[in-house]
Sequence to fold (86 residues):
Amino acid sequence: MVRTQLYLDDEIHAHLRRLARQHGRTMSELVRDALTRVYGAGRPDARIKSLKGIAGLWRDRKDIGETRAYVRRLRRDTHRIGKKRS
Fold:
């Protein structure tokens, strides 16, 4: 990692400080994340590599049940809520 220095106007600096405090992060982390989102990480394949790395992450989980049953439960509960409002 390379250390650099930025000049920020007072309003942006104060906003970053508030955000950092709220999210329990450093201002440097917030700036790095923002720069990566806007300008990329410099490696076009890095995002694809990350996505491939998390694909199927919960595939072998036994504690969350079967996906179709979960979705049916959610839909059933949503349907009940909709009837109560009518």
